[in-house]
Amino acid sequence: MGDTGCVHFASYVKEYGYEPYSYVHGYFSACVNKEARLRKALSCLCYKCGSSGPQLYCCLHCIYFACKGAHITEHYKHTKHFMALELCYGMLYCYQCRDFIYHSKCQTIAERHLWLEARSLDKSLSWRPWSPSRLEIELLLKNPKRRHVTALTSIGLRGLLNLGSTCFMNCIVQALIHTPLLRDYFLAELHECTAKTAAKCLVCEVSRLFQEFYSGARGPLSLHRLLHLIWNHARHLAGYEQQDAHEFFIATLDVLHRHCKTSMKEQAAKAAAAAAAAAAAAATDKSKSSSSTQPNSHQPMQHSGSNYLQQQGAAQQDGAGALAQSGPNALPLSTAGNQSQGGANTATGTANQAEPNQTQCNCIIDQIFTGGLQSDVVCQACNGVSTTIDPFWDISLDLGESSNGQGGYGGPPRSLIDCLERFTRAEHLGSSAKIKCNKCNSYQESTKQLSMRTLPIVASFHLKRFEHSSLIDKKISTFISFPAELDMTPFMSQIMSDQQQQQQQQQSAVPHSPSSSSSNFNERTGGANGSSTGTSLNSDSTARLPVDKSTTDFRYSLYAVINHVGTLDAGHYTAYVRHQKDIWVKCDDHIITTATLQQVLDSEGYLLFYHKKILEYE
């Protein structure tokens, strides 16, 4: 059986055509509009027992509804009507073949109906499994050899040669290579380079590395091209001495982001120019023609500027080219804010107001790694709140003793959760860092609290083990435990705001002294999140920005850990990466060895990479 169904369906199409299938699927399976949903609600009942499921079939010969099993089988035996449509999943069933069948044209019709249903309900398309395009089918036919991927496969594992104190680069590359969505993006060859020469494009080089890693070869790779490109685009990393892995990680993301952003702008400009030229040509043809025939309009193709995650969540088959395509949407991420605070590395430019930035970059780097850090500064005199939101690529967490021992939390943290709790604790800025309050029209003491406004798909945490001061440089080797599964819900802005409101309601019911009325943002003090100066408190900014409450799952799973062993002067970087589910490997330059999850959790930890367990498609 090919993509044209069976011989019985061919005879059915010859007699009835595709209209019955299109009508039944559009009205009783996909429900393309409000009228279809009403008809389905009133008509989709088993004609035998009157039930609505759980799985109904519809006869394509006479529009007869019946339950799966005895009822629909009885109808077939009585009428000899052999073609039916399963309404839950929209699958064709042939009773003469006693099996479900596939037909490419019916699939195209079904894809269009699903798109119309999504547009009618103002929702995104449901996730669809991958379906090869015509070009991919041709390539698969030309290359019939297949690689069988098993649980013990080594595909995707390659050692990396140390080119002379380049272990910092090798570890970051291993972590990026094993980032699932980044791997899917580059293996799908979605990057379209607009550089004059691909040899100067860092994104092209990373794409080539992904191809090398998953080629099936086992020999170690040399990253001399990548290193040279990084030197050219991030001059502060040029040289033969050991570099900081965290600094290299941020620099790599920055260069990738800039290259992707430039590529997207150039492609958008070309698409706009092509659209303008097509419109001008159409207008010229229309003015010259005296007939009423309208010229064909050519729409510009979507390219790498569109949302890759949205394409994954709303994949369209190549055969359904007639279907309208949904436009690119930005991630729900605000990038406003005066500057990055509390150790979060900013990803884009800055602003002075806490408003969503409509020009937020939508490249693959920002889609995966960019989150939003909310900073709330509260005036201690009038409780006015000034809110700013900064984008971040990772969160840097202090490991030393807190400079403010209030609240009983003055010692060093013991776990990643301790670090995050201290990072999001309210900090009293003190009399030496007074901030002008617009409501009070004077400089007042205030508190500042950080929280997670939006979370990225990949949450990376930097444990600040290296201390640099005017007196001495040292490494903090304190063991910080970190979990394999991480729930970030307690650190979300909306959750923390709800907790604050509950505390205020409880306090309003209990008499309290006037001095306690000037409490901080969430009635907790302690922790050092840095200071902010030159900020004006605006009483109008107390209103919270809207939060998508439908996204309630903030669970993450550990997939990569980078460790530093040794001292500041003589150290070495290694990495643990999750190769497959429950299979971990240790990457020590060109040596790849198996590891256990317990070994990973017992390691010192310098950079921690967590991947979101459940993705919300746009």
UniProtKB/TrEMBL annotation:
Superkingdom field: Eukaryota
Top EC class of this enzyme: hydrolase
A GO biological-process term: proteolysis
Catalysed reaction, written as an equation: Thiol-dependent hydrolysis of ester, thioester, amide, peptide and isopeptide bonds formed by the C-terminal Gly of ubiquitin (a 76-residue protein attached to proteins as an intracellular targeting signal)
Cellular component GO terms, alphabetical: nucleus
Domain UBP-type per the UniProt entry, residue ranges: 20-121
Protein name: Ubiquitin carboxyl-terminal hydrolase
